[in-house]
Specification:
alpha/beta; globular; six-stranded mixed sheet
């Protein structure tokens, strides 16, 4: 190779390095770009009876909780509007079926991702992991763990109807001793009133109920199961990928962590106080 051609080659190499054009591979995306939904409306179903995911204070019509903050943030990032967001709450036992039928665009409310549910709805990526545990009265002395509770055939276990928590209660003590409630609020009231001996509940939500019922109830340490939570959509929904992109961005910039600290952290206070 001549000196001249060597110089030309060196010059070309320098230009390649400076301009980033030495190969045909396109630049790697920054990952900061989120889909723009063009201001479209998104109907959201939530059962506002699961503190601190979703709740309506007595005498109020304005629901509050993790779900409302998270979905509002998602739509702010994707340029969408959660239409009738505050008016379209539905009972939990109808929630998944209504979304599967296309009556709502999506739903929140601490929904566990299961293979059975995947048959009728699509899930977002998981935004939180929770453990199923037992909630009992603060002074409970008849049992200290799930095995002892299971062994005493006189003791009833409650949970919210249609949840994986209720399924776990049935697995633990059988159908005859598992009591279904319309809401966890009802189940907690029954526990405090000595109508049942324990509740199967997610630890995150359970800790919030313990905080607002100080000295009355507690959680046992044993984990019965571990669930991943996600939002649900009708099968084939075009919203799944944009919502996943927003969740990924919220996880990366600390927003999901901040929401978790706000609603599940040690400084949580009842939204109605």
């Amino acid at each position: 190779m001549s000196k001249t051609s060597m110089c030309l080659s060196t010059s070309c190499l320098l230009a390649c390095l400076l301009l980033g054009a030495c190969n045909a591979t396109p630049p790697t995306p920054t990952g900061n770009e989120l889909p723009d939904l063009g201001g479209r409306t998104v109907t959201v179903a939530v059962d506002p009876s699961y503190l601190p995911f979703s709740y309506i204070c007595p005498g109020s019509t304005e629901p509050v909780g993790w779900d409302y903050d998270a979905i509002a943030e998602i739509c702010a990032r994707l340029n969408c509007k959660p239409i009738n967001f505050n008016a379209q709450e539905v009972a939990w036992f109808n929630l998944i079926a209504f979304v599967a039928e296309g009556q709502f665009d999506m739903a929140g409310d601490g929904i566990s991702i299961t293979e059975e549910r995947k048959l009728i709805v699509d899930f977002s990526d998981s935004y939180m992991e929770v453990a199923q545990v037992l909630m009992v009265q603060a002074g409970e002395s008849r049992f200290t763990n799930p095995a002892e509770l299971q062994a005493d055939g006189s003791l009833l276990v409650g949970s919210q109807v249609g949840t994986t928590n209720f399924d776990q209660a049935v697995l633990l003590v059988g159908e005859s001793r598992a009591v279904a409630f319309d809401s966890f609020d009802d189940a907690v009231a029954a526990l405090i009133n000595n109508e049942i001996a324990a509740i199967v509940i997610d630890d995150q939500a359970g800790e919030s109920y313990v905080d607002v019922n100080a000295g009355k109830i507690k959680l046992l340490a044993d984990e019965l199961a571990v669930d991943q939570l996600g939002f649900i959509f009708p099968k084939g929904s075009p919203l799944v990928e944009p919502v996943n992109a927003a969740l990924a961005a919220m996880r990366a910039d600390g927003t999901l962590q901040s929401l978790e600290e706000k609603w599940f952290g040690p400084d949580f206070t009842h939204p109605c106080e």
